[in-house]
Amino acid sequence: MAFQKLSMDELNRLSVEEFKSAAKHSFVFILDDIRSLNNVGSVFRTADAFKASKVYLCGLTGTPPHRDITKTALGADESVEWQHVEEVLSLIARLKSEGYVIVAIEQAEGSTFLHEFKPVANQSYAFILGNEVFGVNEDVVNQSDICLEIPQFGTKHSLNVSVTAGIVAWDYVSKSINI
């Protein structure tokens, strides 16, 4: 079989305006103390690709507009709804009161491996990604309802934050819409 790449027109992507008014999947990303603005931009792009409801930028995580975020977001910082919240624990308390399941993406005792995670229909999830060096803050892990861990088989102990966001978003969306 011969394959031909699709043109940009053939991809039939939403405009920014169409994206903003389109129905989203029932998940948000919380980026807590992410140092790299390129990682922030990349998570915006992932949030756009998988129609996340929102991205929360907490603590020292940089916010748009910034050229390093824009460089990797490729415009997704304009399509995806976002909010800066200084204190992540207050955000977690608010999201819990709104019915979100709080999910720390972290290697922890008692964590659930990602392939064993079963999203519940009509349930909203908040996926927390932590600092590139220290991971998700221990206080945040303790306030989470679930700790998800991506199994790894090599010599490194972690994945890049933006890679993790992509894996988690794909897993959640594919399980939610039964691809």
TrEMBL record:
UniProt keyword DNA-binding present: no
GO molecular-function term, one example from the UniProt record: RNA binding
Transmembrane parts of this sequence: none
Pfam families the UniProt entry points to: SpoU_methylase
Domain of life (superkingdom): Bacteria
One biological process term in Gene Ontology: RNA processing
GO CC annotation: cytosol
PANTHER family given in the database record: 23S RRNA (GUANOSINE-2'-O-)-METHYLTRANSFERASE RLMB (PTHR46429)
Protein name per its UniProtKB record: tRNA G18 (Ribose-2'-O)-methylase SpoU
